[in-house]
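REQUEST ID: PR-0412
SUBMITTED BY: lab tech R.K.
PRIORITY: routine
TASK: structure prediction, single protein chain
INPUT:
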Amino acid sequence: MRSCVCKLISALLLVTLAPDARAQAPPPCECRPCGGGVKCQPRQWGYCECRAGQCHSQCFDERRPARELTASVLTLVTKEEVTPAGLQESPDRYASILGKVLEGETEEGAFRIEYEGSAVGFAFTPAAEAVLRQVLSELKAPSSTPTPPDPPQKTAHVETSAPEESAEALTVAESVSKIWWPNLLAAVILLLMLMYSIAVMVERFLTYRAAKAQSREFAPRVAQALKNNRIEEAIDLADKHKKSHLALVVNAGLHGFRAHESSGELSGEEIDASKRAMQRAIAIKSAEFRRGLSGLATIGSTAWMVGLLGVVFGLIRALQSAMAGGSLYGAGVAAGVLNGLLTLALGFTVTVLTRWLHNYLAGKVEALLIEMNNAASELIDYFQKNRRESYRGA
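STATUS: complete
OUTPUT:
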């Protein structure tokens, strides 16, 4: 009798305590994904996982390189450290896992996968889903084609590298078209420097050529006039050849000589006065010949600095893109570095060309100055010769 009573009491206790036991059991963790537990910002995709009856979630930026985004998804599923470069080590395995993720769509943008006893859910944005499907097709491509022998493998490598080169060229074109305004300003300044240098080069070259041409015509004629002591004819020739540097020097010296020709006396002081007049004429003509060369020298020494400033602007732009995208391998980073290097290349080009032009024109000026000094020296010799002859006649 006592045993029956004990059994009855035990049955009643089980009936009364069963609901409490069920109430204390943890509720199932349902990620669909995460049962709305992921609240991400626009352009972010979410991840969730059930652990110990609780849902753990996290958000990621969709603006990441395709391989890096794929590696992050596989890392969350497999709990292994998957790198973008490591995707090629086991493409079949990773393609299978990624395919199961994309096949487990429960609703629009929501995906769920059961992997090794763990339930993982994702909420992908349309852009992130498109990137993952593209990478999945790339991972499946090598496994779907038979592995060719070694010689055909080189041909296959060349064929696959061609699209990459075209894509790279397209990226360069887009980078140049979207150049940042500080880099554009630096490039415009460098182009203006180059245009100024070319303009000075053309103008100085024409000036020097005209001076040489008139001097070649003037020199033999004035020498013949002085040989015959026709001072007025020599002065008239100098007045007619306005662009000749030799005519300017000879004209300054002959005017001083003509003032004392009628007296028949030419002292040493008068010769020195004519010499000083010719030196002043040489100084004036020298300054005229050197006009514009100082600007070329300035451009030749500062153009590369403007290009280097463009590199600084490009690096600033690249760092801004890296901070915005969360990666150092984005297209914005490459575009910033590329724009900076193009500006630097333009700066070096302007520097080299300007330095060449400056040195060429400076050599021309030195040659013209030597001709003027020689003309002044020969005219002084002519004055001294006439002075000696006047002494002998006296």
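NOTES: The chain has eleven helices and five strands.
REVIEWED BY: pending
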